[in-house]
Amino acid sequence: MKKKIALIFGITGQDGAYLSKLLLKKKYKVYGVKRRSSIINTQRVDDIYKDINLKSDFVLFYGDLTDSSSILNLIKKTQPNEIYNLAAQSHVQVSFEVPEYSADVNSLGTLRILEAIKNLNLEKKIKFYQAGTSEMFGRTREKFQNEKTPFYPASPYGVSKCFAHWITVNYREAYNIFACNGILFNHESPIRGETFVTKKIIQGLIRIKHGYQKKLFLGNLYSKRDWGHARDYVEAMWKMLQQKKPNDYVIGTGKTFTIKEFVNKSAKKIGLKIKWVGKGINEKALNIENKKVLIECKKRYFRPVEVNYLKGNAQRAKKLLKWSPKISIDSLIDEMIEHELENL
Ligand code: NAP
Ligand code: GDD
């Protein structure tokens, strides 16, 4: 039987790596799009990558979501059955510093892929997945967010992803493209980027515990996030494209914790006894054993406007995709700690 072909934009990122491994296990041929960088940045997929001169079901090409011609050429060349658009300037705080670039990649990049599918007359052949985000709900006041919750984005990142969401819906309705939006809540893993808060906390606390770092500096301790594991979430992406009809799906755990609760859980598992003192920007965590300050808050890590509360209701995914998260927040933290200790 002919292998299914997947083309992944954003293959060098956290989700790109987990999705590639899932699809290879399912016997796909996986093509991935990487950006040119001054130093090789394929660490997350190095374990499945073979020399380009050898035959392999995992092949990387250069391309960029800001470059329409590269997108069109790659789709033409690879003739995929499924395209996963995971590429993005994905850091919320950074999007305040590079708003125009974030919109170019995240919004127009999505449009460029959809236009390429249309212009190549591949609307009937290709199924398309768009990596949407709970950041689109932003400053919502709803206790749980689902597919019907109105968007109220609170960053250039969130706004750019709303464009990507609606243009995906638009091309589905206008040109009958099998296009799905996954609206994914935060998902983490041992290979999460170092500047996202879960990785930063676990890496920082382990380094402190083992004497490689003195302090950890954080921002808002009181925002709440619904954290899952990337391994579970890429499975939902794939399931969306295996349905009879395209649809949009919220993917989350239905549980939410503050950043401070995440710190407390992680510190306990790492074996650091901490005590919080002070208020607001002066809030600090002390090491109970030697009274040294381990964690401080810094204004630079606060955002111009914050998304305070996210909690997903993934009932549609449960019913239609038979998807529910398997990995708990405690197992996620355990796995991240184990990985960090190995790398110390
Ligand atoms: P990530 O680790 O930041 O990976 C982003 C990927 O996009 C990387 O491969 C990056 O390449 C690539 N990229 C960035 N700009 C590009 C450009 N101009 N052209 C081509 N590729 C580009 O993000 P992730 O956590 O895996 O998330 C995957 C997707 O899901 C993103 O779209 C993100 O916005 C979205 N999302 C993530 C979460 C989450 O909690 N993780 C939740 C909801 C939605 P480099 O390696 O070269 O930088
Ligand atoms: N990054 C970071 N660094 N965040 C901090 C820090 C810090 O030092 N201190 C506190 N925070 C707070 C942020 O203000 C935010 O409320 C929360 O921790 C989570 O921040 P991130 O881990 O950067 O993730 P995010 O929620 O902003 O965005 C992630 O999840 C989205 C899905 O909801 C990213 O992966 C996005 O790409 C994704 O769409």
Notes on the structure:
This protein has a domain at 5-190 and 228-254 and 309-327: 3-Layer(aba) Sandwich (Rossmann fold), CATH 3.40.50.720. By secondary structure, the chain is an alpha/beta fold. It contains ten helices and 15 strands.
Nutshell version of this structure?
The protein has helices at 14-25, 68-78, 92-97, 99-119, 156-175, 197-209, 230-240, 259-270, 315-321, 329-343; strands at residues 5-9, 29-34, 58-62, 82-85, 127-133, 178-184, 187-188, 216-218, 224-225, 228-229, 248-251, 257-258, 274-277, 284-287, 293-297. It is α/β, with parallel strands linked by helices.
> From the helix content, strand content and strand pairing, which structural class follows?
alpha/beta
CATH superfamily of the domain at 5-190 and 228-254 and 309-327: NAD(P)-binding Rossmann-like Domain
Radius of gyration: 20 Å
- Give the terminus-to-terminus CA distance: 45 Å
- CATH topology category name of the domain at 5-190 and 228-254 and 309-327: Rossmann fold
Average pLDDT figure: 97
Q: Give unreliable regions as ranges.
A: none
List keywords for this structure.
344 residues, alpha/beta, Rossmann fold, 7-stranded parallel sheet, 4-stranded mixed sheet, 15 strands, globular, binds NADP nicotinamide-adenine-dinucleotide phosphate, binds guanosine-5'-diphosphate-alpha-D-mannose
